[in-house]
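Example (one chain per record):
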Amino acid sequence: MAWADRIIGSLIILACIPFWFLADRFPELAGNFPKTVVVTIAGLSALMVGRSFVGPEIDVGTGRLEARAFALPLLVAIASVLAVLAMAFVGYFPAMIALCIGLFFPLAGNRRLLYAVAVISSLAFIYVVFVLLLGVPLESSPFFGR
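Predicted structure:
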């Protein structure tokens, strides 16, 4: 699993670079939200990569690279890309709610209440900080208007 964390984490960090430059195209303060998200994602990915080098290996196996280890990270990456593409049509909050619902069973495991609380509090925090305080138009979309 350490190799999967290293490869997937590195790919996510590399994918953050064009998103940073894409956020420069937004007018005025509107680019602050995507840049904050990109830095957060890159930081968490760097933490994942760094953690894969520290401590004992939890998954004791043959030492071979198994395709099974890539299934869940690949599912999350594909779902996230689809959610980002959907944001252009339905807006940020509907796309993120759909992403979180779609990833509920694969990611929540036995901690479903914790997952739900984390998702709801994160979306509420994003709404208060970026929509109400900074005025970023996250709820506008061509599909829903506004």
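Caption: The helical segments are 2-23, 32-51, 68-90, 92-102, 104-108, 112-133.
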